[in-house]
Amino acid sequence: MVSCQPNGKYEVFPPPVFDAAVLSRQSEIPVQFVWPEEDKPTPDTHEELHVPLIDLGGFNSDQPEVAAEVVRQVGVACAEHGFFQVVNHGVPYELVSEAQRCMESFFSMPLCEKERAKRKPGESCGYASSFTGRFSSKLPWKETLSFSFSPFSSIVLDYFIGALGEEFRQFGQVYQEYCEAMSGLSLKIMEMLGMSLGIGRAHFRDFFLSNESIMRLNYYPPCQKPELTLGTGPHCDPTSLTILHQDDVGGLQVFTDGRWRTIAPKTNAFVVNIGDTFMALSNARYKSCLHRAVVNRESARKSLAFFLCPKMNKLVKPPGILVDHDHPRAYPDFTWSALLEFTQKHYRADMNTLDAFSRWIQGTAA
Length: 366
Ligand SMILES: C=C1C[C@]23C[C@H]1CC[C@H]2[C@]1(C)CCC[C@@](C)(C(=O)O)[C@H]1[C@@H]3C(=O)O
Ligand SMILES: O=C(O)CCC(=O)C(=O)O
Ligand SMILES: [Fe+2]
Description:
GO terms for molecular function: metal ion binding; oxidoreductase activity. Belongs to the iron/ascorbate-dependent oxidoreductase family. The chain is an alpha+beta fold. It has a single domain (36-365), classed as B-lactam Antibiotic, Isopenicillin N Synthase, Chain (Jelly Rolls). It has helices at residues 20-23, 56-60, 64-80, 93-107, 111-114, 155-164, 169-196, 202-208, 276-281, 336-346, 353-365, and strands spanning 53-55, 83-87, 126-129, 143-149, 213-220, 232-235, 241-246, 252-256, 259-262, 270-274, 291-293, 301-308, 315-316, 334-335. Strands 1-2-10-7-12-5-4-3 form an eight-stranded mixed β-sheet. It has a four-stranded antiparallel β-sheet with strand order 6-11-8-9, with no helix packed on it. Strand 8 (252-256) and strand 9 (259-262) form a beta hairpin. Helix 7 runs antiparallel to helix 8 and helix 10 (336-346) crosses helix 11. The longest helix has 28 residues, at 169-196. The model is unreliable at 1-12 (pLDDT under 50). It binds the ligand C=C1C[C@]23C[C@H]1CC[C@H]2[C@]1(C)CCC[C@@](C)(C(=O)O)[C@H]1[C@@H]3C(=O)O, 2-oxoglutaric acid (AKG) and fe (ii) ion. 2-oxoglutaric acid is lined by residues 216, 218, 232, 237, 244, 246, 251-252, 291, 293, 303, 305. Fe (ii) ion (FE2) binds at residues 235, 237, 242, 291.
């Protein structure tokens, strides 16, 4: 039996759960949460990565030259590293604050309450206190609540009521509305991406009109040894497009030009990044870039991540116009359902997920 001693130390490893109330005050970090030297966390990195601030108001304006300039900036950022921020996005500030507030109340609940929504092995939805039980080392210093979204349904509201009870109807309504706003925003971004790749505004918007996306609430408790741990380890998102709202604490780092740099929080902006599935859809014209989240000694940090994903069984294949003699096919055809299964059952998402997955499906098809 694994037992937690009164001094907060674990008698045997692994710890049974990631109990933030205990661990966030403890200066001795259980070995499973300590990241190796090659991943060395650098919580004190203040060097910023300046990514373009994309003004969606400009894209929506009736001045074609203004919209064209916005599209050009998106194209440059996506070809370079795949990260940018959006402002004037039309998502009400009150909705974002309410989503952040509900998150605070959810993660402040006692562990046993949160565990009513516990994520089951092999599934991508539910509550996870770190990933104890799922992985045995390099555990993330975070708690997450993940749930599925697809448009034209009340799937988010139904999830909250089904998993946590009628008292969570209001949370369900907030996140249902938040996901609808994120799905709408991601379709606008798809229009910009299509235009910047020269295939017109409709192609990718129509591809993602019916999407089967994932919403994730990330809660990073303080850590007394932030130079040993990581909130989210280095990875490229396997999904298509991520829209992230970070609170004002800071901790998101992106790896470009051989070093980690911070994307500082910006009120009323969303951080957007290209994921592996869109990299495949663009035939590797656009980059899915390595990133991670560091933690700190003083403050808990919260982020809301909307992962846009295609419908499960839709073929992920770049449009013909992006494939030519100079740009041969970079990845095989696949479905999001297969890549999701790969990350949940066979491979822990990192910087090589798409290459490893490509080899895996080519092997299983042979
Ligand atoms: C399909 C997914 C797998 C992860 C959740 C979604 C989108 C991003 C993935 C993830 C966040 C990438 C970093 C590693 C991971 C294990 C994590 O820290 O949460 C990934 C998610 C997961 O497999 O649960
Ligand atoms: O919390 C963050 O800043 C980043 C989280 C992240 O990269 C993810 O959930 O995929
Ligand atoms: Fe990510």
